[in-house]
Write a structure and sequence with these properties.
Elements (H helix, E strand, L loop, with lengths): L2 H9 L2 E6 L8 H12 L5 E4 L8 H14 L4 E6 L5 H14 L3 E5 L20 H10 L11 E6 L10 H13 L4 E6 L3 H13 L6 E5 L5 H10 L7 H8 L5 H21 L4 E5 L5 H9 L5
Parallel strand pairs: 1-2, 1-8, 2-3, 3-4, 4-5, 5-6, 6-7, 7-8
Helix pairs in contact: 3-4, 5-6, 9-10, 10-11
The structure holds flavin-adenine dinucleotide.
Flavin-adenine dinucleotide binds next to strand 3, helix 5, helix 6 and strand 6.
Length: 298
């Protein structure tokens, strides 16, 4: 069992949080306050997103380094193929090994929406599986081979670039065969989709932990933005009924969204899911409420 798999299996249930780097320098301190608040809930790890093409290379690195230095939590930085050469990825891995990072979430990333003709010829890695292989075999003067565990993304409701759902699972399996240590899923609102995905992984002989991505809806605008970003995600009728009832009352709507996420997490835990990854959107209050109601404080 790899180090990150040991960390995940020690969680029972594993709880992890996701943050994105601050969009403006003046937001750094309030984000760090959020992170310190959530530290009390002892997550197995926290992950930090990456702007595909390196748009957040410095801010992701700065946040990850600060989490290593100023908290007891293990940060897992995301890293994308899009817009990067092998040399750039090597430099980033060396920087992370110096600050004590032990695991990377390896992603393909998406070409920028602003550039529909984005040319990927300059990218040394086409798919996440290529990046998984590179990270697993990476070594340099300052980084020993095998320094990093690797996580990968999973899509219980499919991925928009691969409508063939059998092929999609073969691509998932390729990431695992390259050495991925765990899967973290896209957010979903229908637990059946997750349980079915677990079963389909089982059928592909994928036996690494699968952590379920859960995002509480806290505003109507946020839900609409998320529907755009997570194309293909089913916003279930059950969720929409709960949310639309409170369109004119933001506080009640937020409570309804959090209640839905609590019920979803409880259902996942009851079925023995390997872990829950909460998309915090850099706010602590919804996450704290969910953890309190689930009585998860370790
Ligand atoms: C948990 C999570 C975290 C994320 N964090 C970030 C982030 O920090 N930054 C960011 O930019 N994006 C992030 N994303 C979004 C992600 O980068 C995009 O959804 C991207 O389109 C897919 O990435 P992937 O790693 O799954 O790619 P891949 O596994 O490479 O798959 C991408 C598509 O290509 C297909 N495919 C794979 N291999 C082949 C092949 N050999 N031949 C043909 N087709 C193939 C797959 O079926 C899929 O449709 C995240 C997604 C998730 C679920």
């Amino acid at each position: 069992m790899s180090r990150i798999q040991q960390i995940i299996s020690a969680g029972k249930p594993t709880v992890t949080f996701e943050f994105f780097p601050p969009r403006k320098p003046e937001l750094s301190e309030s984000l760090f306050k959020t992170i310190k608040t959530l530290e009390a809930y002892d997550p197995s790890f926290v992950s930090v997103t990456y702007g595909a093409g390196g748009t957040t290379r410095k801010t992701t690195h700065d946040l990850v380094s600060r989490i290593c230095k100023d908290t007891s939590m293990s940060p897992i930085p995301h890293l994308t193929c899009i817009g990067h050469t092998k040399e750039e990825i090597s430099g980033i891995l060396d920087e992370y090994s110096k600050v004590g990072v032990h695991t990377i979430l390896a992603l393909r990333g998406d070409p920028p929406q602003s550039d529909p003709n984005y040319d990927r010829k300059g990218d040394d890695f086409q798919y996440a599986a290529d990046l998984v292989r590179f990270i697993k075999n990476f070594e340099s003067d300052s980084t020993p081979k095998g320094a990093f565990g690797v996580g990968v993304a999973g899509f219980p409701e499919g991925h928009h670039h691969t409508p063939n759902r059998l092929l999609e699972m073969a691509h998932m399996k390729a990431k695992v065969d390259e050495g991925a240590d765990y899967i973290c899923t896209q957010l979903f609102f229908d637990n059946h989709a997750f349980f079915d995905y677990q079963d389909r992984c089982e059928l592909e002989w994928i036996h690494i932990p699968i952590i379920a991505g859960v995002m509480p809806i806290t505003t109507l605008g946020g839900m609409k933005r998320m529907a755009e970003l997570s194309a293909g995600t089913n916003f279930t009728a059950k969720l929409l009924k709960q949310i639309y009832r409170f369109q004119d009352s933001p506080e009640d709507l937020k409570k309804a969204g959090i209640d839905y996420a609590i019920e979803q997490c409880q259902g996942l835990i009851d079925q023995g899911c390997d872990g829950i990854h909460l998309y915090t959107l850099n706010q602590s209050n919804a996450t704290v409420e969910i953890l309190k109601q689930l009585n998860i404080k370790r």
